[in-house]
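Please review the protein record below. Let me know how this chain folds according to its tokens.
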Amino acid sequence: MIPYGTRYVLPPEWEWREHLKHQIQNTLSRWGYVALQTPALELFDPLHPQSELAFHLTDRDGTLLSLRSEYTAPVSRM
């Protein structure tokens, strides 16, 4: 059983998504954009506007982590 609101992506749809993703990446690359990836987990920040809505985890050493909710803050810290 999988959580409500999720679903499996089967090969035909996956292939279509990958094709579309590559088309978008090629277009953005021609315009001078480059890719970047930020970590999916961040240190918990109680002052973050979405901190109460975030999925929280505890690291091995007891550090509270949050699943990244959006890209604005991680990108601005780079």
In short: The mean pLDDT is 89. The chain is about 35% helix and 15% strand. The two ends are 38 Å apart (CA to CA).
